[in-house]
Amino acid sequence: MKTILVPTSGTQTDTGVFVTALALAKLVRAHMEFYHLRLDPCDAALRDPHAQFCIGPAISETLSFLEKRDKAVAADAVHHFMDFCEQHEIPVLEKPASGDGLSAQWVEETNDPEGHLLFHARHSDITVLGRQHTVDYMPENLIETLLKKSGRPIVIAPDNPTPQPIRTIAVGWKETGECARALTAAMPLLMQARRVVLLTVLEDRDESHTGLSHLSRQLAWNGVVAETRMLSDAEKPVKQQLIDAGRQAAADLLVVGGFGHNSFREQVFGGVTRELVDAAELPVLLMH
Asked: Between vectors from CA 176 to CA 148 and to CA 219, what angle results, nearest 5°?
């Protein structure tokens, strides 16, 4: 895991994304590609619900406003990037350098948000995203789209991450292909972590215990010594059990499988995947 895609919005959401991406990059000494996508005024107008109702002279005024806003947002985004790299002493490079050090790069493109973002996500080892709080012209199902079409893992950054290294990683395990792929995607991180905790919510006590013990032995072949914890609080939803267990383990990252059904809103892993995406207090790594 040597390349991390960091989409930037030019808004307050970037702060949590940058901090989370840096924590991941430090763990594996990776290169971060900070990516900002701009829209020309006409394309922005097509995606802006208010602009679609403009007529006459208001159209020209709206296009001028959208162009000025795009320039201001892009300027804020690149300034934040430069300040962040200077603050954390991150070298800014345009091509890979020899050695195994941390580095960053600024990339800016125009139009076709979905196509450009998917291209860069497929060409990166992992993508770090924030939760959408402002209008940025990206589709509402962006997370689902990246998971299903990029073939790469993504990390959802919390709104207010703690700027600390990733030392402990918790893995929410269920006997599904999605969880197995998430575990595989996270292996470079697990191999560098100081502590790994496997979590499963008991449905069949004997079978779950056997599966988790076997998984722990398999990870040991890769040099990952993992603790196992079985959760069985029937009064709490799966999401809360995982969050509570992660908090008790002082986890810095949670790994889970993502979206086993066709719809983003269908219940998967007891509905926990969507709920963790919406509200988890720590970064969540997902793989479909």
From this structure: 105
